[in-house]
Every structure is written in C-alpha cells, then in structure tokens.
Amino acid sequence: MSGMSEGQAPAADLVGPAVTESHANTSSGTPEPPPLLGAYPLPPPADALPQPGAAASAQSASPPSPRPQSPSFGAVFAAAPHAMAVVDREGLVVTANDTLGELLGTGTDGLPGKVAADLLDLSSDARTWHAYREVLRGRQARLRCARRLKHPDGHSLWVQVTVTPLPETERAVLLSVSDISARRELQSRLRHLQMHDPMTRLPNRTLFFERLSAALEAESYEESGTGRIGLCYLDLDGFKAVNDTLGHRVGDRLLAAVADRLAHCADEAGHNRATTPLVARLGGDEFALLVEDSTGTDQLAELAESVLKALQAPFDLAGQRLSVSASIGVVERHAAGTTATGLMQAADTTLYWAKADGKSRWTLFDPERNAHRMTRQALSSGLRPAIERGEFALEYQPLVGMEDGRVRGVEALVRWHHPQFGTLTPNRFIGLAEEDGSIVQLGRWVLKTACRQARRWQLERPDEPPIFVSVNVAVRQVWDSDLVADVAGTLSETGLAPRLLQLELTESAVMGSAGRPLQALQALSDMGVRIAIDDFGTGYSNLAYLSRLPVSVLKLDGSFVRGFQYEGSDAHHPNPADEVVVEAMIRLAHRLGLTVTAECVETSAQATRLRRIGCDTGQGWLYSRPVPPDRISELVEAETCGRS
Description:
This is EAL domain-containing protein. By secondary structure, this protein is α/β, with parallel strands linked by helices. The chain has 24 helices and 24 strands.
C-alpha cells in the first residue's frame, strides 16, 4: 500500500518525552518477560509496571496477595477496536491486529515483516522520518503525526499515527493508527469557508496572502519554474456611485458578476500554461490576480488587457444594465528578494498611477517613477523638521537696471541643504510646502532672513542708494496666516523701510484675488511695500482687472525672453512677432504706471532688444546666477553688472 504525504508534521504532532520503565517481577527478584502475543512479547498492563517509590517499599512490604486471572493480552490486542501493530527496532512489523489490516485494506496476515514506514508513509518528509527513527532508537519518547493514505479500493483516507516505545526489554515500539478522515473533512470545509469570500466565492485576502507568501519562499521557485512572479491589482472605477445610487444589493451582484469574468480571464490565461492565475477578492471592489512562475511583463500586460476588455461589456443585473471599468496596477519581477509587503506596496502605488493617469487602464510599475514618489514623500515629511533644524539658506539674484547696468535690487531664492539629497532648489520642495501648509512657517523665515540681510547691506553702504529685496509669497500664506501682520512685524524688527521690500505673487494668484487676499495686498501696498506679479503672461491676463490691483511691478515670464531671439545669423533683423508682443506688454504696463522686469536674460542680444523697447530691469545669468550674500556686496560695488 502506498501513501501520499500531507507534508511536514506540525510541531504540535511531535510530542515531548514520556517516562517508561521496564517490567520487573517483584516475587522472584529475577526479571521475567511479559506474556507473549503469538511469538512476540507485548507490554505489561499499566498496573503491573513499577510505580514511583515501589522499589523502596517492596523490601518491607509483605508479598502481594493473589490477584484474579486477567484476560489474555494477546486476545485484547487482537480484538481491540483501535488499529495497532508492534514494530521492532529495525522498523519491521512484528505483529498487527485485525483492525489495522481492515483499515489499510491489506488484511492482517500480510503485515508481519513489512516496513512500517512504507505502510504509513512515514518517510515522505524529512522531519517525520527523523522523528520516527529517533523513537525506534529509543532517543525520543513519542511521535504523533497525520498522514494521507491511498486505500486499495481507490479512496483516500487521513489517519493519525502514534508511535510509542515499549519497555526497553522488548526492543520494540507500539504503533497505533486512528482514522481521522471525517475530522479532516470537517476541517477542510471550515477552512474553505474561512478562506473564501461568501459573496463572490473567490479566495479571500487571507488565502491570497497565504498563497503569495508560499510563492515567495525560496524552495517554491529555486528548483523549478521561471523564478518570477506577477500581480495585477485592480479596483472598479466609480463603484461607490453604484452603491450610493442603486443600493448595496445591486452593488453585491455587480461584484459577483465581475468576479465571474475575472475567473474566466484567469482560466483563459492559464490555458496551455503550467499554472492558472489565482483570482482573489481582497475587500470592497478590490481584486488581485496572482501569476506564479510568470514569463515576463508581456504575460502580465496580456492578462491586464484581457481583464479590461472583459469588463467593457455591460452587466445585466436583475433588470439593471450597468457599465463598469477598472484601473489596474501591474507588477512583474524576480521572486528572489521580493517580499509580500513590498510586492503589494508596488502594486498599490501602480494602481494609484493608473487612477491618476485617467482610469480605465493598466499601468506597469516603474522603479524610477516610484523612486521619485518616494523622494517626494521623504521631502514632504521632512519639511517642518528641516525648518526647525535650520537646513534652509537664501541666495540672491540681482535685478539690474537696463539703462545703466547697476544693481537696483535682488530676489531672495531659498535653498534646502538636505542631508541626503544635497542642495535643492525651490522647484523641488515649494509645491510640497504649499500642499502640507509648511509654506507659512518657511515663508516667515524667508521674509525675516531676507529683510535682515537687506538692512545689513544698507548699513554697510550708508552713503549709497539702498537696494531692495524681493521675496516670493504663496497664496496660502495670505489665506493661512496674517501676512500683513507678519510683514509689519518683520519690518519693525529689522528696521528695513517698506519701500525696500517687494513681494512677488504669481499671476494666477494675483489676478484672481478677491476678498481677503485683495484686502491684504491693498494693506501691504498702503504700507509702502511694492507688489509684483511674477511670471506675467502665463496665466489669464485680465488686463482690465489689472488696473484695479495694488500692483507696482510686472515680471515678464522667462518664456518670452527665451524666445526673444534674432532669426538666423543676422543680428540686425529681429523676429517681429516676438518684439511686437513684448513691446505691447511693456507699453501697457508703463501706461498703468507699472515698471517691468524681464526674467531669464542670458545674452547681450536679448538685453539690447529689451533695453531698446523700454524694459526697466532685467534678471538672469547674463548679470549673475543666484549667489550668497557676500557676493551681492561685490556686485553692488561694481559700476555695472553684465552691461552689454
């Protein structure tokens, strides 16, 4: 009879040692063997074994009184309803009762001399085989394990095998076998209920992660297969609206119908392949298709496409005709070095990308995009602590008069000296600071630091015209703080005159100002602070509204200046369209009493044209890159800065 192993014996099945002692005949003082079963001794009854302390009391006690004749141990063994066999130290069956023969379907006569381990499949896994041999050698007190056996009539049965040493003089073990098929069947049914979703009948989250963890164990992929694993992680687009409008009953029916289509896609994908993808419902409207031994991203892409196509057809649910789509995150990689948590995090991130990219699509995991996301998250979480630790610094870029080339002012530009990512420019973190609100705290620091430095330059050159400092302000600073009070307090603390401070806001922020923002800008202007519109020309330029705003400066966006080039190699024939547009904006600004600053001035040719059409100041690498405060002092002392 052959058996199929259940796998390694559970730790609980390998029980601890039990104390056993050999039988002693206290009446004669000479050990005698117990009664024989057939030609082999059987263990003595429990009441015949020496009890603790029996050796000391036997010397003084009187001989025992005669006892009634007990039944033959051989008869008891043969008729026992429990299947048993005696196995010698070599692992061969010495004798067995009829119950064991009936259980195994071999009859009793053919069992003596058989290898017990073969009869009960004790050698199919290393752990059970080792424990069994230790019991045979007398070095382990007991073994208990469950095995799945094949009966000669074709059906399978589960048995619990217990191996216990007999007294040392017997040099044998007692093997007992119990049929636990009914119990295992009940356990299997309960496990199925526990591991499957009752609505969709798909494996649930628990079973999915159990399978995923098993697939990522080294022994699962090292000996065979591709050594790769893939996952399609999806949820339905707009499913909440179905529940909210049509009710949860319709929503549940929709989930069950989606599950059927996913299962069909998995069956199709598994056709003519070694494995079929596991489809599981992870909760809500989230599903996963796990592909073990995947052959590459092409296989996962094909599976994701088939899912999207399968879900495109409308669903007819008890008179309701519904259409639904899904977003899918696809991950495919080597199983080695991958963890279940890491794989699911990558899948969840990729699903988010699919949603953000427009839904009703699948997106493949991109390590570079993920690294950017992780960096963004690291920067976002570290902003507030970085402000407290003093990791930020200011550099300044000159604002130069187009006519004389002298420094009129500077723009303060914040830098983050990050301990991990090095020096970061504002475009790397200002957006994050605006999102989480830390821009208010950072903005206050920039304002105070810039005003303090401007006042220091003024004190260093008391006989020269002072330079102003321009500070960028985010709209959230106006809404989430009292910007007017912050500016007034900073000017009072540093001693800087209001006319030497310029605040820059983006065009979209200023042109759309109303209510509190407009009141704040007006109060700042009344205080004497200059207001500049940054990146002018890139937003919705409501020129009629511009005349009613408390604005004193327009800063032309660098895109105008970068395109402000001569055509070909002839420097005397400018592009008329570019010049007309820029000149019109400058004239309009001057008619409204505003001054104009051109950003991103990089060449002498650009500066010459801007000066000719009336631009007031310029800013860009032609004059200077952003520099530390001490370099600004040197530039201010020079007669001209980048004068063409």
